[in-house]
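seq as requested:
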Amino acid sequence: MKRFIVASFLWLACLGGSSVCSASMFSLVRSATPLKSGEVLTGVGFGFQDAADGAHYVRVPRVLLGVGFADVVDFQVDYEYLLLRHDPFFPEQEDSGDAVLATRLSFLRLYGYRFGLGVNVKLPNAADNKGLGTDETDVQILLLTSKTFGKFQLDFNVGTGLMGDPTKNANQRDLVVVGISASYPVARDVSLLAEFSMNSDLHDVRIVGLKQGPFFNDKNILKAGGGVIFPMFWRVQGELFGRAGLTGDSPNYEIFFGLTRKFQLPKFPVEIGSS
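struct tokens:
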């Protein structure tokens, strides 16, 4: 079933079409192109995840807010409220989930490639004793690369993730973070996206329960899947994603639906005079 889901999305991403490719705001793979100066991004979404240990997580709402500066750097806040609906070792819980602060700096254009530096920081606000998170500050430092080949838009992320272990004091795991996505327009303002990621999602719940009891999952989490990006109303963009885990330590599957909109802050004239 997992292989069928992955193969379906990869096949859809190769279909023909026309139009300009839309950028995904909720993809696990980040573009090297930041928001433009004075551009504000707002988003809200809903997600469901079936974890490898039998837990069912509902993410509602997930809120995204970003702003761009000087066309080369932007800042984003990605917050979610998390509900644990079923788990054999944790009772049903609901509480504030992870909040991720992210910034990216575009520093080079070369031979049609765009390069950037991305830093993502997860705040310690998801309780590990409720099975909702790690209650640790996790950090990702990534090299971002983007390139357009005709109508294909390719984004590639590689770097390292510094992840704390709540079950051991002053213990840290260093993981390799890799992500690649390809998007292609199939109609006016409609694009398909395929992606593969390893340890790219800071929202992943790393406290899991097995027969020996809850423990910290420090293994590599691999996901593949994709989705569709489409216009809705009042310049709102819809995004629908499906992902499948590729290893036993990864979530079985997850689905996500989000709405985003961008708008430009007004530029006020500045007058310099003397009294």
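The radius of gyration is 19 Å.
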